[in-house]
Each structure stands twice: as C-alpha cells, then as structure tokens.
C-alpha cells in the first residue's frame, strides 16, 4: 500500500466524525476490580518517580575549538536512571551506579515540564544505593512513597516496577515475586547479597526505580537484570529475570545516608585466599591439614579485629599462576553457627551485619577446632567512591 494511502486511512480513523461515531457505538467499559486496583496504584505512584539524567565527564575529544560554536564533547556524556521520593523534604533513593561519577544530576517529574537539579547526599557503594536531594521542587510535587516490609514478601504476590526503560519516562510493568533471598553480586565490589527476583519487565533505565506491591508500597529498588548472551531478547534487555534490592536494606541505611555518610559493609580484618578449598588437590589439603570447605585466611591485618581475636594468617608463601598464596592460616568454617563453605558465604553473612557487632567464628586450625569472638569494624570505602 502506498505511504500516502496509509496516512489517509490513519487520519480518517481519527477524524472527529469517526471518533464521535465510535464513542456513540461503544458502551462504557468497566474494568475488573483487580485490574482497576492496579490502574489506581500506578496512577497514584507515578508522580513520585524521578527520571534522572546523570552527566558524566566526557571521554570524547572535540573536533575543533571555537568561541562561537559549542563543542559537543565538552557537554559531557549522559546516562539515565530512575528514583523515587522518600520524604517531604525532597530526598529520593536511587542506585549508586545511576549517580556514580556524575558531575551534574537533572531530574524530571511526570507532572512538571521543568528540569530540576539534584545533589548526592549519601552513598552506599557496596549496596548500590544512593540518596539524592532534588532542589527547588514545589511542595505539591514531592510525593513520598510509603516503604513496605520486604521481610514479609511471598513468592507469587503481585509486583509493579516503575521507571524509565530505555529512556521511556514514567513507564510501568507488572509481574510477581518470582523468588526471595536470591543471591546476586551487588555494588562496586560485587559482594553477594540477597535480592528479590521478579518477572516484571526491568530494562536499562529502570535502575533505581521502585518495585511496588499491589498496595503501592515500595518493597524493593530495581537494580539488575539477567540477560544471558544469545537470549532472544538480546544482551542488556529483559529476559524475564530482574532483581531488586530489598527495601528493608535501604530503610536500615536511610538515617546514615541522610546524614551524608558513605556506607560500606563491616570487616573483620582478613584477606581471604583468592580460590576455594574445593579447587585444591587432595595432596595439598593433606599437607596443610585443610578441610574440604571453608574460607581460608591468607593474611591478617595487624591490629585489626581478627588479629585481636587471635585469628592466624598463612605463613608459607607459594607462587601460583594467580600470584603468591599464603598457606598455613586458619580456615573459617562457620560464623554465628551458620556454616561457611566458601569465601562468598562469609562475605555475604558479614555484609548483613553492623560495625561494632560481635560475631563468633568457628575456626579450623591444622585440623583442630577453635571458637573465637570477633567485633566487626567499619569497612573502607572503595577507591574513587564518595
């Protein structure tokens, strides 16, 4: 069909007369109660969502320099994400990776054509969380979302994801809670942490946006998608497996974020071996009297919590393809009664604790079992974070 004819057909369908006839002929529709409830929640909550544009330092070199013409390379590179208001003072939560390295943050709201600027207040790089404050927003446009309880979620309950997938501002998708306590690598140091899995479509640009329950309460913060290479949807696109940071994690950190702190997980002051005990041969395990599972302590920080508790590091340096490795140190096999089979198990458990909290380590030392209490210390922010 010629292009001109297609346009004519489309225009005729939307002419005033056709619209009037269509309206007169079609009876008023009534949505099912459950569907109407979802519509109401989305309409009520989209006004609380932020479309965030982050300007980064440009890595491109301009083609010329002129006092008359702007150099596109000097404007900086831009990326976008989402966020949502958490209180009436204009504070909003988002992902750390949305604002990381940004020299300028611009915020758009659904019910305003104005651009607002925002500043970063506090960050939690290892948790992939950031708190920003939007400047100059009229009080009537600041609509905080109620924060729910992610500890009471059930697999199968309804989820609503809000955000700006691929820059399509103020979009909504629905799904269910697909799984709970799914462990995913999170934050700048990719530390394993629990997450909510949902099949609500989440794509690039949804990062930092809220995941809601059917009542419109925030139960999570969208952060990551699983997009295997070769999937029909393509790399970087939704494949029906999305993840959100449980809102209870953000609620616990919110007072420190609002106080302007950079939050990192607590530490015990050890360096763990860069491999798992299951990777070793039986001969090496027998030589150093190592168990089959656990977290092998390579080095102990002088004066740190583990050193004060009596944890021992390795003394025998062995050259390997991955660098020097120290054998002969303690193996942590449990923490507070919870089994530690891998180094990731220990990191994940400690990351959910607080600095100043005491934990009990079960140690295998050359075949002997010891129990050592350790008081956790504040961690050090990753290089380049704020």
CATH third-tier fold name of the largest domain: Pdz3 Domain
Fourth-tier CATH superfamily name of the largest domain: PDZ domain
**Number of E strands:** 20
Distance between the termini: 58 Å
H/E series, N to C?
HHHEEEHEEEEEEEEEHEHEHEEEEHEE
Class inferred from helices and paired strands: alpha+beta
Signal peptide: 1-20
GO molecular function: serine-type endopeptidase activity
Protein name: Trypsin-like serine protease
Pfam family, one: PDZ_2
State the main characteristics.
386 residues; alpha+beta; Thrombin, subunit H; Pdz3 Domain; six-stranded antiparallel beta barrel; 8 helices; hydrolase; protease; Trypsin-like serine protease; serine-type endopeptidase activity; signal
Describe this structure in words.
This protein has 386 residues and is an alpha+beta fold. It folds into three domains: 43-59 and 74-141, Trypsin-like serine proteases (Thrombin, subunit H), CATH 2.40.10.10; 150-251, Beta Barrel (Thrombin, subunit H), CATH 2.40.10.10; 270-375, Pdz3 Domain, CATH 2.30.42. Helices cover 18% and strands 33% of the residues. It contains eight helices and 20 strands. It has a six-stranded antiparallel barrel with strand order 1-2-3-6-5-4. A six-stranded antiparallel β-barrel has the order 7-8-9-12-11-10. Strand 5 (116-124) and strand 6 form a beta hairpin. The chain is elongated. The termini are far apart. The relative contact order is 0.11. Residues 1-26, 62-66 and 230-234 have low confidence and may be disordered. InterPro entries: Chloro_Bact_Ser_Proteases, PDZ, PDZ_sf, Peptidase_S1_PA, Peptidase_S1C. It comes from Deinococcus aerius. Residues 1-20 form the signal peptide.
């Amino acid at each position: 069909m010629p292009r001109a004819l297609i346009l004519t057909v489309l225009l005729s369908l939307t002419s005033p007369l056709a619209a009037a006839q269509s309206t007169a002929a079609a009876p008023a529709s009534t949505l099912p109660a459950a569907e109407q409830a979802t519509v109401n929640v989305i309409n009520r909550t989209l006004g609380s969502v932020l479309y965030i544009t982050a300007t980064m330092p440009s890595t491109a070199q301009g083609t010329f320099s002129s006092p008359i013409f702007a150099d596109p390379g000097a404007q900086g590179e831009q990326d976008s994400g989402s966020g949502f208001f958490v209180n009436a003072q204009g504070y909003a939560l988002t992902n750390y990776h949305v604002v990381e390295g940004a020299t300028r943050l611009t915020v758009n709201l659904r019910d305003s054509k104005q651009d607002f600027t925002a500043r970063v207040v506090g960050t939690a790089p290892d948790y992939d969380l950031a708190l920003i404050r939007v400047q100059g927003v009229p009080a009537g446009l600041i609509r905080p979302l109620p924060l729910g309880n992610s500890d009471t979620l059930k697999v199968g309950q309804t989820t609503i994801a809000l955000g700006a997938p691929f820059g399509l501002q103020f979009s909504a998708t629905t799904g269910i809670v697909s799984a709970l306590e799914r462990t995913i690598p999170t934050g700048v140091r990719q530390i394993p942490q629990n997450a909510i899995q949902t099949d609500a479509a989440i794509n690039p640009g949804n990062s930092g946006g809220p995941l809601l329950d059917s009542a419109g309460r925030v139960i999570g913060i969208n952060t990551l998608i699983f997009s295997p290479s070769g999937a029909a949807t393509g790399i970087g696109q939704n494949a029906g497996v999305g993840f959100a940071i449980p809102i209870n994690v953000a609620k616990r950190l919110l007072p420190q974020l609002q106080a302007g702190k950079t939050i990192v997980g607590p530490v015990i002051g050890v360096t763990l071996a860069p491999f798992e005990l299951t990777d070793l041969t039986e001969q090496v395990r027998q030589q150093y009297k190592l168990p089959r599972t656990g977290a092998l302590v390579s080095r102990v920080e002088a004066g740190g919590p583990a050193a004060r508790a009596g944890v021992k590091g390795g003394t025998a340096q062995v050259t390997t393809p991955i660098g020097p490795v120290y054998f002969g140190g303690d193996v942590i096999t449990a923490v507070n009664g919870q089994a530690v089979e891998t180094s990731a198990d220990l990191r994940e458990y400690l990351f959910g604790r607080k600095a100043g909290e005491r934990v009990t380590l079960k140690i295998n030392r050359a075949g002997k079992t010891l129990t050592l209490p350790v008081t956790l210390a504040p961690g050090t922010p990753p290089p380049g974070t704020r």
